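thought: user wants a sequence for this fold. calling inverse folding tool.
action: design(structure=
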């Protein structure tokens, strides 16, 4: 079992940066593949980035590649999403998610994730 709490969202100007954090509780964090998703009003939840349990493998959606970076610190039970050059279209609620311990595949499918945080709002104004 993994409990997830996101933080770091806010209102920024287009072009600014934010770093989201996802603090996890539960001994399974170090063996869990993690992901970030986002959901804009009226749209379905969309994949943003994923990271393997060790942090050596990552995957980013094309829409954020080169601007966003996922990372993790297993000693702190935390996964991060560094977001640079934010655009108005990045405005959404951002969710942290965890696959069950023992997963070996990075996944862009939200149905592959078993645990979710409550979300944090990111708004980039033009």
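)
observation: tool returned 126 residues.
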């Amino acid at each position: 079992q993994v409990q997830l709490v996101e933080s770091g969202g806010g209102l920024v100007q287009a072009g600014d940066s934010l770093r989201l954090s996802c603090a996890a509780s539960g001994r399974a964090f170090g063996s869990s593949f993690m992901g970030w998703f986002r959901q804009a009003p009226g749209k379905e939840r969309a994949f943003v980035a994923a990271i393997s349990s060790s942090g050596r493998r990552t995957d980013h959606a094309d829409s954020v590649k080169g601007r966003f970076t996922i990372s993790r610190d297993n000693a702190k039970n935390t996964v991060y999403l560094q977001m640079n050059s934010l655009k108005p279209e990045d405005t959404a609620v951002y969710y942290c998610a965890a696959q069950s311990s023992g997963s070996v595949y990075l996944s862009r499918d939200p149905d592959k994730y078993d645990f979710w945080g409550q979300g944090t709002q990111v708004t980039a104004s033009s």
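thought: summarizing for user.
answer: Here is the designed sequence. The chain is about 0% helix and 45% strand.
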